[in-house]
Amino acid sequence: MAEPPARFWLRQAYSDLFMSVSTGTPAAPVHNCQRVGKQQQAVEKAVKAVLAALRQRGMIRTCTPRGHTIHVEISHILSAIGRLPSSRKTNDLVQLVQNLFYAQNVGHINDLCSLAPKWPAQGNLFPRNTEYPFQQATAAWLAPCDPEVFTQPELNRFDHLAKAVVAGAGKIVSVSER
After folding, report:
1. Of 116, 147, 173, 178, whose CB count within 10 A is highest?
2. Cβ(142)–Cβ(30) below 8 Å
3. Would you say the C-alpha torsion 162, 163, 165, 167 has a positive or negative sign?
4. What is the DSSP letter of 121?
5. Is 172 exposed, middle or buried (0-12, 13-18, 19+ CB in 10 A)?
6. Side-chain half-sphere CA neighbours of 22 within 13 A
7. Pick from 94, 143, 112: nearest CA to 45
8. For residue 142, what are the β-bridge partners?
9. Can you name the residues that pair with 141 across neighbouring β-strands?
10. CA distance 116 to 156
11. Under 8 Å between Cβ of 87 and 94
């Protein structure tokens, strides 16, 4: 089965990012779950764009996985970059990938992407996410659209992260096409 080229993943990441900005207004905190959901999707697709770009260059064999496996995808990317021999042709690409996927940023990406909806294991509480009602540690239920679910500092951090990851992926895709 053919894989979508990196540019297609990137275009969709930019579309999701645009929608995250247009749904996130301070006057409508009920839409914060939609805003964070689109930021998560933008970041996930940007990472898939990087993976696809490296695959297109023959630097990685891994196909773009379906589903929410961002930590696995980032691991494949970093592993591939770590195996590249140093050359003028690859140094710019390696530097861009390292600048995007440094440890602290990967932690923030994992935090955001952990909010993708998923069903809990049998007997566990439903985790906080952007789409489905979930349970707090007290077993009290909340809807993702409840105004207290996402704090303003979180919204600001996710907004900054999504913009940086999509822009960084754009640079990586562009350099990989040279």
Report:
1. 173
2. no
3. positive
4. P
5. buried
6. 6
7. 112
8. 134
9. 135
10. 18
11. no
At 157, list the tokens.
């951090």
Q: Which two tokens stand for residue 73?
A: 């995808």
Question: Cα separation of 59 and 61, whole Å?
Answer: 7
The two structure tokens encoding residue 91: 């140094």
Angle, helix 103-113 to helix 32-56, in steps of 10 degrees: 130
pLDDT in tens, 74-101: 988 888 888 877 777 778 888 999 999 9
Q: Cβ-count burial of 152 within 10 angstroms (0-12 exposed, 13-18 middle, 19+ buried)?
A: exposed
Phi, psi of 48 (to 5 degrees): -65, -35
Tokens of 127: 């985790």
**Residue 90 burial (CB count, 10 A):** 17
User: Model's pTM, two decimal places?
Assistant: 0.89
Question: Which amino acid does the sequence have at 145?
Answer: C
Structure tokens at 141: 């239920």
